[in-house]
Amino acid sequence: MAAEDLALSSEYEVTCSICLGDFKDPVTIDCGHNFCRACISQCWKESQPTFSCPHCRETIQQRDFPPNKQLGNMVSLVKQLRSQEVREPELDRVCKRHQEALKLFCEEDQTLICMVCRESRAHRAHTVVPIEEAAQEYKEQIQTHLKRLRKEKEELLGCQCHEEKTSRELMMELERQLMVSECTRLSQLLTQEKCLLLARLGDLDKEIIRRKEENASRLREENACLGALITELEWKCQQPAPQFLQDVRSAVSRAEEATFQRPAFASFKMGKKVWRSPRESHGWRAPRELLDSFLLRASPWMGPKYAALVLFFALAVCFFMLQGTHPAKFANVSLDVDTANHRLILSADGKQVRLGYNDKDLPSNPRRFDFEPCVLGSEGFNSGRHYWIMQSIGGAGWAAGVARESVNRKSQLNLHTREGIWVVYEPVGDFRTHTSPENALPLNGSPKKIQVYLDYEGGQVAFYNAENKAPIFNFTASFSAEKIFPFFVLWDRRAEIKLHPPDME
User: Fold this and answer.
1) In this predicted model, what pLDDT tens digit does every residue of 80-103 receive, in sequence order?
2) pLDDT in tens, 350-389
3) What is the 3-state secondary structure (H, E, C) of 417-435?
4) φ, ψ (nearest 5 deg) of residue 152
5) Sheet holding 128-130, edge to edge
6) Which of 66, 86, 106 is the last residue of a domain?
7) pTM as predicted
8) Which terminal residue of the chain has fewer beta carbons within 10 Å of its beta carbon, N or C?
9) What residues does the RING-type domain cover (predicted)?
């Protein structure tokens, strides 16, 4: 067993982290990690012009990889130890109880037995087969699982390469969009759009990196687990029949339970979301597509000679954008008393609402929120760009935004986009959104005066700090030709919501 222990303890040292097999023509790169020459050469070709170590992600400049002869010798030694392990003496094949040869295998008890044991009460009613026949049957089962596991391992390696390629392409796309945002920044007339775009680019950058790291880590773990299981099962199949049949059912169970869970990869839809801004409309699309086309061709290789041309082109595009831009209309929102929950108290002018202590006796109305303390605005929108300003008074425990006309009004309500509700809310002093997963918004303080922006055709619901125009959050939505209403919720009796009329805007 000494050879077996030594071989097992050396498995990690002689395993390539890319193919998870024994090193073949091992080489060492600048950071000190070792790989098969064919594996690292393939990674280098796929990662040009920049190349990083698949193990530690350090950037590598070299192109010629020196061989590691000592490691090659160690691989040969471990292979010799494995062969010695297979040739070790077989287990004692004599029944300890009857001193007869162990020629049979009991399926129920999963143990080797002799002919005398076969006729005993303990095994008389059991299924008993010759050991070679039992070994062959289980080997066939394991070989079937091995075939599937090897295929899944190949798919996993393909997914890993796809993730690396997709991440690189997304980062290139992100760089191009950052350049577009820099051109947009040249025009002070687009300051609000610039802030929102840069905020989204930052969020997208973090999301790409986070998803890449999560997927890469998960893929590495899945790859390592499958590699270890395949190695264990291959080693198990090389054992003599008596030793192989020991604990064989456990090996089969582990093979059956092993599955490859594919992660959710990043998609180009993430990048496309960055372009959409609250003022985007049909009038913006033609000049913006021209700028996109120009920058996509030039940005990866742009040198100083293009700088003046980009500046001129960006300013010209900004001019044409402004020619086709129609500012959003201020919506003089009032609260609809017919939709207000019986616990809400509305002001006479419909501009303020708070949560009361007692339920009011209100007439039944199909438009009223019977279960949740919600209220809609009196006017809905099915076209155009609109905004309104609301102020929170008294503290947390409120939500504000927009909702579909068909929103659920008669039972418990989940303030989520899938319910046709797009809101920000302040539960206990911090701003949040109901997305998947729920977002805690990184704001400096809690804005008390909030501007809600609705672009119906553009499918946008955006929230800004009304005092400094800083972006809070932006939803991309599909309204499906349904009317959209201002939407408000109160949970805390200390909180109030006040709507600002046009003269206070």
Assistant:
1) 877 765 554 444 578 888 888 888
2) 999 999 988 888 888 999 999 999 999 999 999 988 999 9
3) HHHCEEEEEECCCCCEECC
4) -65, -35
5) 111-113, 104-106, 128-130
6) 86
7) 0.41
8) N
9) 16-57
